[in-house]
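Practice problem: predict the structure.
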Amino acid sequence: MPLRLLTFPARIAIDAFMAFVRDDGWAIASHIALSTLMSLFPFLIFVTALSGFFGTQDLADQVALLLLEAWPEEVSGPISSEISSVLTTSHGGLLTIGAGLAVYFSSSGIESLRIGLNRSYEVVETRPWWLLRLESIGYVLVGAFGMVALALLIVLGPLIFDRLVPWFPNLRQFEVSLTVARFGIASIVLVVALTLIHKWLPAGRRTLDEIAPGVAVTLAMWLITGVLFGRYLSEFASTYVSMYAGLASAMIALVFLYWTATIFVYGAALNQAVIRRRNAARTDS
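Answer:
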C-alpha cells in the first residue's frame, strides 16, 4: 500500500506530461505567453482610463502592483518602468475608441487561455466565435473592475486605519498584520482566478474537486519557478542585456511568462489525467 501511494501520483504526473507533449503543450504555452504580454499593456491602459473616473492615478498604480506582486523582483523590476510610462500617459476617457480597442486586445489573452484549456481537457468548442469573444471581453471588464475595487481598498485602507487609531489606540498592534494582509491579496486573487478559469473558461463543466489538483500543483510550481528564475536572473541577467539590448526587459518577461504558461497548461493536463483515471475506475467497478 505505501508503495502504491507513491507510484500512483507519479503515474498520473507522467500521464499528464505525455498528454501535454501530445497536445502541443509547448507551442500552446508559447502562444499564451506572447498573448499575455501583448494583452498586459492594453489592459493597463483600460484600467488607467477606468481609474480616471475616481479621480486618482494611485488606483492604476496599485493595480499594476497587484498584477506584478506574484512576479519575481528580477522580472517585475525591469518591466515596471515601462508599465509606469504607460500608466502616466494620458489615454483619454473611458468611452473612447482607444479604450474599446484596449479591451478587445486584452481579451485575446483570455482566448489564448481558452485554447490551451480546451486542448488539455480534450474538449471541442461548439459555441460560436463571437459569443466566445464577448465572453472574454466580459472577463476583462469584470477583472478590470475587480482589480480597481481591490486597489481602492488598498489605497483607502491605510487612510481609514490612520483615522481610526486615535479613536481606538489598540488597533495599532494590528498594523503589521494589515500590511501582511495587503500583500496576501495578490495570492488570494491568484487562487480565485485560477479556480474560475479552470471551471468556466473551457468548454464543458468540471467540479471543484476535479480542478483542485491542477490548481494546487500550478501554484506550487509557480512559486518554485519564481524563486529559481529570480536566482538565475540575479546571476545571468547581463546575458539578456548583451543579447537583446533595449528589448532585454521584454524578453525577460516573455521567458518568465512562457514557463508560467507551461506550468498552467500542464496543470490542466494533470486535471484531465486525474479525471481519466477516475472514469476508468468507475467503469471497472
